């Protein structure tokens, strides 16, 4: 179902061509919302200079050629040459009816792209902390939106599962015994397991020597060492999956692409770069020096692809991932949902990959930069002891806070129902708070604000959906079974219907710009407009066609709210 913008933009473009010739057919009409009309076309001002005419005269000729019969009830010129377009109530009503009949609610299917999407990326045998929250939540929302738009998303969870720490972790596991309480910490309290292994490594020369030997055995593919490494990996998978299940994200074991995945390819990466003269040995390390990346002294900054001790770092693994995405996945876009401080790293990796011929010009790598989660002191959120806050503890706090609100507001509900609502509200509040701000900006983590039923919060939107459901419960009707006939008479009806029609366009923008906060802003405004509609336009007390029309608008609002929150990964409780 086309949005008002999708209908009017071609009409204005055709009018420009009719008024000034086909050479101007491609001129962008620049349609935007306006306080004076539903849409305002800023076409005259850009064209005036090219045509050598006054902008208002250009606008008059565009309007004279404009054919919007049956769509607009008013076309006016304002200011120096803006064209204000006011849609007719009948067109809005007809478009809303069509949207209600469309199972996709007006969301377009885009030309399919293959999009590897790198997000979450915790480390084996280490606790997931608050720093993993945003990469996981933002990445998962983008995966949902892109798939809904018709793209093939290849989730890539690049867990840290290789390298020197695994020598000490394996040796510690062997010492405590696989079935011991200490061994189970690898799954229940990874940080404690890691800390115990590290303490032995630092305090016992014998243990440290055995750990280093175990690293060599691991890298050489020793079957026994690989078995214990896989045991540790299995414990961490179970831990990760508990987090992902609690958060309600779509990552599975099938999406794991640990550092070990690329291990065999890393020497070839280095050999090819060195053979092509792109990488050179500097101070014992193999480095790529690119003229466009320089330090304060004006000298090129090295991208180290092989360390002086023969080990490999993130740069080498990222280059291997790019080659795989292009050669095996045939990617169109490669999206990395990773912290903002990694921006320079990615720019250097991509430049190196392009120079090596591994990243063609028609494949677009994109860094979705993730800002920090801050505490009340505006510093990175940590425990009182200064440690990174454990993610599971954060989620548990959110659910507990929501349970207190639910117990107070709905003591009439059974315990199990209140527990389920608290889970949906608590987790939804945390996820929505994260998604509702631009992904590259920091935000202050404030549970009291997050679970509030007022303001731009997850619970406010969940409550709005529950409020719509209550209308149909009271009427003894199913939202999916109401008539879809819509008639627009009141201003609040018009504003609600017009906003509903923008849903497909907004979801498309989220997929193009990779910015989930746009959808959050849209849904928040939708909830506010429905509230105004509900207050000014009685639904169940209305009669005849007016009642049917308002029920149809309420049902469409619920469908959009459910689908929109679902694309963000936020559940909608049936009652609150």
The named CATH superfamily of the domain at 404-568: Isoleucyl-tRNA Synthetase, Domain 1
How confident overall, as mean pLDDT?
93
DSSP helical segment count: 21
Spatial gap, N to C terminus: 32 Å
Query: What kind of sheet is the major sheet?
Result: 4 strands, antiparallel
Fraction of residues in β-strands: 5-15%
The stretches of 5 or more residues where confidence is low (pLDDT under 50) are none
Radius of gyration: 28 Å
The CATH topology of the domain at 404-568 corresponds to Isoleucyl-tRNA Synthetase, Domain 1
Side-by-side strand order of the widest sheet? 1-2-4-3
Number of strands: 13
Q: Architecture of the domain at 404-568 in CATH?
A: Orthogonal Bundle
- CATH first level of the domain at 404-568: which class? Mainly Alpha
Helix content: 40-55%
What's the shape?
A: flat
Structural class: alpha/beta
List keywords for this structure.
Gyrase A, domain 2, 21 helices, single chain, four-stranded parallel β-sheet, 13 strands, alpha/beta, four-stranded antiparallel β-sheet, 576 residues, Isoleucyl-tRNA Synthetase, Domain 1, 12% strand
Describe the overall structure.
This protein is of the alpha/beta class. Among the domains are: 4-87, Gyrase A, domain 2 (2-Layer Sandwich), CATH 3.30.1360; 165-250, no CATH class; 404-568, Isoleucyl-tRNA Synthetase, Domain 1 (Orthogonal Bundle). The protein has helices at 4-20, 44-51, 55-65, 89-101, 131-148, 165-176, 181-188, 190-203, 205-219, 223-247, 266-275, 314-327, 343-356, 391-409, 415-435, 447-450, 458-475, 491-500, 503-513, 517-536, 544-568, and strands at 31-32, 39-41, 72-78, 82-87, 114-118, 152-156, 279-282, 285-294, 300-306, 333-339, 364-370, 373-374, 443-444. The strands form four sheets. It has a four-stranded antiparallel β-sheet. The chain has a four-stranded parallel β-sheet with strand order 6-5-10-11, sandwiched between helices. Strand 7 and strand 8 form a beta hairpin. Helix 2 (44-51) packs across helix 3, helix 6 (165-176) packs across helix 9 and helix 17 runs antiparallel to helix 21 (544-568). The protein is flat, with a radius of gyration of 28 Å. The model has no long low-confidence stretch (mean pLDDT 93).
């Amino acid at each position: 179902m086309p949005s008002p913008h999708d209908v009017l933009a071609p009409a204005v473009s055709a009018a420009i061509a009719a008024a000034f010739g086909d050479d101007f057919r491609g001129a962008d009409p620049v349609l935007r919302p306006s306080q004076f009309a539903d849409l305002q076309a800023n076409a005259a001002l850009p064209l005036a200079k090219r045509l050598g005419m006054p902008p208002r005269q250009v606008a008059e000729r565009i309007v004279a050629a404009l054919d919007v019969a049956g769509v607009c009830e008013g076309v006016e010129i304002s200011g120096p040459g803006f064209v204000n377009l006011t849609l007719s109530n009948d067109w809005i009503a007809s478009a809303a009816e069509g949207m209600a009949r469309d199972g996709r609610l007006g969301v377009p299917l885009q030309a399919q792209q293959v999009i590897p999407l790198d997000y979450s990326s915790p480390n084996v045998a280490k606790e997931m902390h608050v720093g993993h929250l945003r990469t996981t939540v933002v990445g998962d929302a983008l995966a949902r939106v892109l798939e809904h738009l018709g793209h093939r998303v290849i989730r890539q969870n690049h867990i840290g599962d290789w390298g020197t720490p695994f020598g000490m972790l394996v040796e510690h596991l062997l010492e405590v015994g696989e079935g011991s309480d200490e061994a189970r910490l690898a799954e229940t309290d990874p940080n404690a397991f890691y800390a115990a292994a590290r303490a032995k490594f630092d305090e016992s020369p014998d243990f440290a020597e055995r750990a280093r030997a175990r690293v060599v055995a691991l890298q050489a593919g020793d079957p026994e060492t690989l078995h214990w490494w896989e045991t540790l990996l299995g414990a961490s998978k179970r831990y990760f999956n508990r987090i992902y299940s609690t958060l309600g994200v779509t990552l599975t074991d099938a999406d794991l692409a640990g550092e070990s995945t690329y291990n065999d390819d890393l020497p070839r990466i280095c050999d090819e770069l060195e053979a092509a003269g792109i990488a050179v040995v500097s101070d014992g390390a193999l480095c790529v020096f690119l003229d466009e990346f320089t330090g304060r002294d004006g000298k090129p900054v090295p991208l180290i692809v092989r360390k002086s001790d023969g080990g490999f770092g993130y740069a080498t693994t990222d280059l291997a991932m790019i080659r795989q995405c292009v050669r095996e996945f045939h990617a169109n876009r490669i999206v990395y949902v990773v912290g903002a401080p990694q921006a320079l790293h990615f720019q250097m990796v991509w430049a190196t990959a392009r120079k090596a011929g591994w990243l063609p010009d028609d494949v677009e790598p994109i860094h979705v930069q993730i800002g920090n989660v801050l505490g009340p002191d505006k510093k990175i959120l940590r425990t009182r002891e200064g440690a990174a806050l454990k993610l599971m503890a954060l989620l548990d706090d959110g659910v507990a806070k929501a349970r207190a609100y639910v117990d107070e507001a709905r003591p009439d509900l059974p315990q199990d129902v209140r527990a389920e609502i608290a889970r949906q509200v608590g987790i939804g509040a945390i996820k929505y708070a994260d998604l509702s701000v631009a992904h590259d900006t920091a935000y202050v983590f404030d549970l009291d604000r997050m679970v509030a039923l007022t303001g731009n919060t997850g619970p406010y939107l969940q409550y709005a959906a529950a409020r719509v459901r209550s209308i149909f419960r009271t009427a003894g009707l199913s939202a999916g079974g109401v008539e879809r006939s819509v008639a627009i008479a009141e201003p609040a009806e018009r504003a609600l219907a017009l906003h509903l029609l923008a849903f497909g366009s907004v979801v498309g923008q989220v997929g193009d710009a990779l910015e989930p906060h746009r959808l959050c802003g849209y849904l928040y405004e939708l909830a506010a407009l429905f509230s105004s509609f509900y207050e000014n336009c009685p639904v169940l007390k209305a009669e005849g066609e007016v009642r049917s029309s308002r029920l149809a608008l309420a049902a469409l609002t619920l469908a959009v709210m459910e689908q929109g929150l679902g694309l963000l990964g936020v559940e909608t409780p049936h009652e609150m």
